[in-house]
TrEMBL record:
GO CC terms, sorted: cell outer membrane; pore complex
A GO molecular-function descriptor: porin activity
GO biological process, one term: monoatomic ion transport
Protein name: Porin
Amino acid sequence: MQLSKSVILASAASFIGLAGAQAADLPLKAKAVEYVKVCSLYGPGFYYIPGSDTCIKLGGYLRVDVLANTNSDNTGNTSGAGGANNRFTNGYTWRSRQDLNIDTRTATEYGVVRTFFDATFSWTTDSYAGQGNGATVYSPIGTTQAPNNANGGGVAGGTVGVYYAFIQFAGFTMGKAVSQFSTPWANYPGNNYDGLVGGGGTITGVNQFTYTAQFGNGVSMALSAQDQTAYYQAGVNNLGAAPGALGAFGLSNYAGTVAPDLVAMLRVDQAWGLFQASFAAHNNHAAYYGGTETTGHPDDKWGWAGQLGLSIKNIPTGPGDTINIQGVYTNGATRYNIQDLAGSAGSNTVFGGTNLPGAYQSVGFGMAPDSVFVAGGQQQLITTWGMRGAYTHNWDAYWNTAIYGAYAGVRYNGTAKSYICGPTGSGVGGSFGAAFGTAGLTSCNPDYNIAQLGLITRWTPVKNLTFSADLTYTHIDQKFAGTIAYPGSAGIGKPGTVYELKDQNTVLLLLRAQRNW
């Protein structure tokens, strides 16, 4: 009897255990719904993180670019191997990129707490550089790059880039985000091209601490302290630091950071469009005249920038058509005009042809630092002004075209010109004459203008898949004239000989396929 009871109990336990195991394998509808619960508080695409009251949204894009007549993506041939316009200049450059962003939001008694992260994973073809001995090296894949050169190595020969990483809470934004100085369209009033001058940039974000006040009816004001390194530093150039090819314009000579940039922005964003006024104060803090403390240093100088932006929506030419336009003026704060992705960001050296007897080729210079100085002298702030804009027309639900343009002027004061061109303006006694000679120089003037004009057409055959073709023309109107004895550059294969000083042009074509998700 005892044995029978034990067998019965064991069988019952086995049955119950088997039933439980089978039940565990079955999908539990209530649990599944709990784990994929939609969060409708913040728009489509948000879901609750399991076991929390935080909502999360994943997004991004995959993009493929092919560019003609450029060594970069996507700024044009205004310096280096691209500006050489010879066998070191790429006929094409290719990039594949995956972008990933993570948006989380949590409702609290103080309002919504938001975090946002955006990163890119890129593979970009690059350039060959000469070594001066009949051999070249492929560069700079696999090396550490400057902040906005996305061509360097790091992951499988490509690059990881962190664009945005910020927290928003109770009106505050803390972390890496687009500058409050920039308009909502940042570098892109209607284009894909990255290199427009004429306004604020940092499309890849800048560290900041910002408070934004909302006044209602679409009116807001932001006050911000933002990191100036390196996106908002155009150069505090020591004109006595380096003789030779670029010694004419000195070498940048920054000291450590002492003050962030201070930004104020007022915006009206309503159904008719948008108006924005921005102001920034920028401290220029240079290191020493020479290699040690004993050589002395120039005093700090604060620069500033002001910008107005206007967007007009739903204009009579068609539904969704838009005009975006802005203008900017800077003094000692050049990056608020010649923004961080604008070509070589104010350091243009472009070579071209010539018909001048005795000259090998031509060259055009366009340098735009924040300030220049010489040993024993003070910083001389550089003044710039500029504008950019675009008109976008929608042909139908699948096609649109935009025409866009930009213009900027760079001006040196009289003292700065005397440092570069000498006291008589002939080049004698100045850094330009010391670097290139004065025998053939007929006009010495570091001022220059840059003009850009472009046309882009986009086709979106299905939602979130867009193909585009973007053609951009750039003209550098430089004010030097005559000839110089250029010392040559092994890296781009340029010989040391006589070059004509001349305005330069370049054209860039971007073909892009992009899938957003």
